[in-house]
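Standup notes
- HV: blocked on the assembly model, inputs below
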Amino acid sequence: MEIAAIFARLREKFGEGIIGLQTENVDPWIEVSPQILPEACKFLKDEPDLAFEMLNCITAVDYLPETGGRTDVQKGRIELIYHLTSLRFVRRLVLKTVIPRWQDNETGRLPQVPTVSHIWPTANWHEREIFDLMGVYFIGHPDLRRILCPEDWIGHPLRKDYQMPLEYHGIPLR
Amino acid sequence: MTPLRRLLEEESWEPVELRTEEIFINMGPQHPSTHGVLRLVLRARGEVVTEVVPYIGYLHRCAEKIGENVAAQQWIPYTDRMDYLAAMNMNLGWALTVEKLLGLEVPERGRHLRVILVELDRIASHLVAVGTYALDLGSFTPFMYCFREREKILNLFEWASGARLTYSFIAIGGARADLPSGWVEACHQFLDELGPALAEIHDLLTTNAIFVHRTAGVGVLAPSTAIAYGCTGPVLRGSGVAWDLRRVGEPIYSRMYQDYEFQIAAPDATGRYPDAAKLPSPPKKAVVGDCWHRYFVRMYEMEQSAKIVRQALDKYTASSGPVGQPIKHTHKLPRGEAYLETECPKGQMGFFVVGNDSPIPHRVRARSSSFCNLSVLSELCRGALIADIPAILGSLDIVLGEVDR
């Protein structure tokens, strides 16, 4: 099944929740709205003719306003990219969802997106990593703690506007 | 009558009321069987473990953040330091990802050269995995046997690249250099010696009664659980799923292996391996998905890799032309995103790159196979004995440099 057919299946099921299909990129992707993300993922995993049993990777990419290149999101954006694999049909799929950098454009409030860790347990650690390094809050995650940085670290290092702190517990960092 | 005897014969002894309670045990971050700086918190009732919580991040070196600040070619040395036991495979993963974004094609001779290098490194990595696994289970000899063979691979790599561990040899666009003269013959000689050496390790470990008792039927991972947790590589194949990206990967990667003959190392439902007549048969206690099968998949894969290297050496010598010119540091990456997974010794290592019309990528991401394989540990260890935790952890074969990046 080509990505266009998968897109048509999703459109049929979720309507406007499936925002678009981008085929010009090296890896074509389907963009979905964050609200219906878990339902769409469950559909992709459970439908017998889709059967995306494996979630390979979740990536978060931060775009500051000036480097965005997209006009509809004024305050920059964070893109979450889900790479899925169907072992049964040897097929790969890229899902993308776009969220604001800060919830309600209020600096300091982490943007929120529903978790998919109940669909693929592997998302548990990937979402923890994104929470840790990129500062995205996953609603419904069972154990959202920092995973790579120390528990009391301040800030989210992979954000493009991250400033390295001057010291950590008396250890000079700069 | 001695005072002690008198004390023992007094009838006032009463049995002491003993309490049983849950205890927490900290394993690591400096524990020898955690293969690096990994901390496990075990919750145990007597000898039975009810929960394992891994704590990682001790070796976090901000590789992804660094990748956003250097040119794509300059990030190659940082990929070396992820899975430092199979640095060639890491180099290849990143190089192919950027080549996929650039639409770059490596000449045929360069592709065969890469196959030789990554498959040799797969053997080296599995030798460490098997050797240290035996060490975890209390057997020292196989460790020395494995390292003796690995040393020969490192010598070959040192001859070709100048480095023994972090090679940075495979570059975006090809390889840093061609193989020196005489290297191919030396590699053939090594492969001739590898077969008997593997047979020795089979004799020492595979059917060894103690080894079988420690591994067969321990830490059984169901295929559905393995897939749900994103486990890949020998961990997934040990559960009986014949999934190997060298055969089913994306075209840019699987094309490298299309003319090669080899078997995917995965047991069928009865625990039999393809073409394994000369190898020891699985012990009766072994269950598909247990520690023994994960170990045996690695042993089997080494023989297959040796087979691939032999074919690659022939194809490499038969082909002519360049091995590919590494791109310049100022080479601009086009706007776009590319993701690619390759079959590394530990599992599927994925790299993701976002280009931005600049030589420096906007974002890089490393999807680590050890990271996903480790996340299944708490599921595997529930109900296991404390003494089995090193056996289960060792069978996952993680490298903390790759987990923490």
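- HV (later): unblocked. The helical segments of chain A are 3-14, 37-46, 123-134. Chain A is about 20% helix and 30% strand.
- Next: hand off to the docking folks.
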